[in-house]
Write the structure tokens for this entry.
Amino acid sequence: MVHRDLKPSNVLLAEDGTAKIADFGLAKKLDAGAGQTRTGAVMGTPSYMAPEQADGKSKEVGPATDVYALGAILYECLTGRPPFKAATVMETLQQVMADDPVPPRQLQSRTAARSGDGLPEMSGEAAGPGATARRGNWRRSWDGSWPASRSGRGRSGRWGGW
């Protein structure tokens, strides 16, 4: 199942702090095959869409699309704004497809100064395999030192190692 419209208003917190996902109106069952969504249809909330979703490539929309939206929600939690927001829906969609978001440190330097790099200090088994690489990826993305993504792979290729 792919939600296809994850955004802050669709993530609810229970009294015990557990996150609950709401509003499955645009959800798509992955094993349903072709059908409900025609190619070229843009569905969801533009500020939280993955580039392939914003571009109407419905055949490319999958679990990574929801992971991207969760990253956009985290970005907003850290910075106070979504990664992309323009005056019109079409301009926002264009930003999602063509631009990189402003590094969070440039928008909220207090957050980075107060909490280091924003990552919990973990080591050994608790951190899991690849933790050092993920921390490096996070830092490069956070401070804007990651190489430009205009290589043709797009942001999905750039962020896909997380």
